[in-house]
Design brief:
It is a single chain. The protein is an alpha/beta fold. It has eleven helices and nine strands. It has a five-stranded parallel β-sheet with strand order 6-7-5-8-9. A two-stranded antiparallel sheet has the order 1-2. The chain has a two-stranded antiparallel ribbon with strand order 3-4.
């Protein structure tokens, strides 16, 4: 049987399908270098040359709202102001702190990657949501079960890798991925260009969510629960390489999970500052204030 190849619409402009697939934003390599918030970079004299302090360019003065609750309070300019008494959604503050880095949701089928990813992207406001499974179906004009039936799992994984290869070239995206995307080592080089979030849900919880769902080819088995457990065992070490792990219990709905994702992402950014910020903090701690 002929190997499955995604239409060139996924990669090349000029076809009709690309219009339906292509997100309404610009690929990273074509992006205009502008910042969502205006700033004025100050030229500083340092060691005989001029440079621009990256704090002014990239930091934008946004901090972790969970460690600085006053940030959540928007101060109105006067009585009756629209901002008076309003609170800022902490998710809105993720955008400037992420500086365009993509968010990739990984985890088992039925873990809520699409639902939670969509909520997080909507709350952030400046990020777009993409679902790799939905893109595959749109680009091929068929369903995932049909792809599995015609091409097998290997054919589907090849299509999935092609989609990820295209998607990761974009910025400011929240991306929901297929449960098995972590199985290919080559996919990790794409995922690690952004921040990877693992939605960790017990198989017993997942099976209740997807009971009766016939759109899960890998679960069309005599014992779906055992199949889920076997798949999780195979993938768990790979999932554990994620930057952020969200342990989800049965009583948590998608909104509660999204809340936890937002909080954990803010903490992750605090714990993993950009290299320039760490270097500058180290220099200042050592008294090396060499910028005049």
């Amino acid at each position: 049987m002929k190997n499955l190849v995604l239409p060139t619409a996924l990669i090349c402009a000029g076809s009709t399908k690309v219009l339906a697939f292509a997100p309404a934003f610009v690929p990273y390599h074509q992006e205009q270098r502008s910042h969502p918030y205006p700033f004025r970079a100050t030229a500083l004299s340092a060691g005989g040359f001029e440079w621009e302090d990256p704090v002014e360019q990239f930091d934008q003065g946004v901090e972790n709202p969970f460690k600085n609750p006053e940030i959540l309070e928007a101060g109105g300019e006067g009585e009756g102001s629209e901002a008076e008494g309003m609170k800022i959604d902490p998710a809105r503050l993720l955008g400037p702190r992420l500086q365009g880095s993509n968010l990739y949701f990984i985890g088992m089928m039925g873990s809520g990657k699409s639902a939670v990813g969509d909520i997080v992207a909507r709350r952030m406001g400046t990020y777009n949501f993409l679902d790799t499974d939905a893109i595959i179906e749109q680009a091929t004009g068929t369903t995932i079960p049909a792809i599995f039936e015609a091409e097998g799992e290997d054919g589907f994984r090849e299509a999935e890798a092609q989609v990820l290869d295209t998607v990761h070239a974009y910025v400011r995206c929240v991306v929901s991925t297929g449960g098995g995307i972590v199985c290919r080592l080559g996919n990790w080089s794409k995922l690690q260009t952004g921040i990877v979030v693992w939605l960790d849900v017990a198989p017993e919880v997942i099976i209740k969510r997807i009971e009766g769902d016939t759109n899960r080819p890998l679960l069309q088995a005599d014992d779906p629960l055992q199949k889920l457990k076997d798949l999780l065992e195979e993938r768990k070490d790979k999932y554990a390489q994620a930057d952020v792990r969200i342990e989800i219990t049965e009583e948590m709905d998608a909104d509660a999970v999204a809340d936890m994702v937002v909080r954990e992402l803010h903490d992750f950014i605090d714990d993993n500052p950009p290299a320039w910020k760490k270097a500058k903090a180290k220099a200042q701690a050592e008294g090396l204030d060499w910028v005049q």
